[in-house]
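Backbones bend. Shown next:

***
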Amino acid sequence: MDRRSFLKTSAMGGSAAAATALAAPAYAQGKRTLTMVTTWPRGLAGVWDSVERVANNISAATDGQITVVPKAAGELVGAFEVFDAVTAGQADMYHGADYYFVGQNPAFAYFTAVPFGMTAPEMMTWYYGQDGMALHHELGEIFGLKSYLAGQTGAQGGGWFRKPVMSADDFKGLKFRMPGLGGQALSKLGASVQNVPGGEIYQALSTGALDATEWIGPWSDEKLGLQEVCPYYYPAGFHEPGAALSIATNLEVFESLTPSQQKAVEIAAGDAHQANYAQFTANNGPALQRLVAGGTKVEQFTPDIWDAFGAASIEVLEGYTNDDIFKKIHDSAQKSMRESSGWLSRAESAYTSERNRVLGVN
């Protein structure tokens, strides 16, 4: 090969290499620290455990290449400001309940819970076995986020009340804490619905700013001390039959991670999701027994109240179906729920009902 041919070949090779380098994604190098803002007070039972598990999982799965530093509500931004903080690049990721952000789009409610929606197993079926996760990504990416489920409380209680509710009319004028689309349904019954962060519920009840509230379930509610200010507890609620928690990473930040680091975030979130569900389920039964022993009066809503909840919930959900992304997510979730329920009600639910009857389990 003569010198001219060599130079020409070398130049072409160099150009090809440069083009390849330019085409490759620009992954950040070296160890990184990501700031995670949250909607929760530090140490809040169950939900903060999920925050810590996600953070620890990501660090372990990346061999310490990524450190996630959680910030409790109010430490960097307020509880309901985390969405804007991450989309604006003020923080790298958030951990929270996506139904707090129905103001950005009501479809976010489907990735926590909607009234008369999916139980935890039904949610997991839709999210991991069908197109729920892909739809979560599609919705999040509209706002510059990469979203994953990262916690699960299971079925949430119907609420704590100073006095029992005997009919749907008893909700008229009631100052009630309930976020998301469930709160909007309760408003249709005449309740004065307020969206109070978890860390402020006890104080709001103590001062009379709230008449009643829902939070999560017996274990976390007991830790919050709700039994000290409200003697009546309704374990079954219409609004959150299986409430998921989420993490969302700023999309530019997520795309700057290597493929293995991105997968680590996904796996860390999925592990936290299932572990959190087990944690809440394991702790709720014993906590309810303690509450009853301590004097809490356990009640159930009457059939006419359930009917009123149902009618109001359907009205709220159908009112958003003119939004394309909401309708797409709504239709997918409803189809999955109906198909899953058709099997689970005939198999698992029928079995547990008979098992409990035979064994005398209450």
Q: What stands out?
A: The chain has a mean pLDDT of 93. The longest helix spans residues 259-293. The two ends are 88 Å apart (CA to CA). The first strand starts at residue 32 and ends at 38.
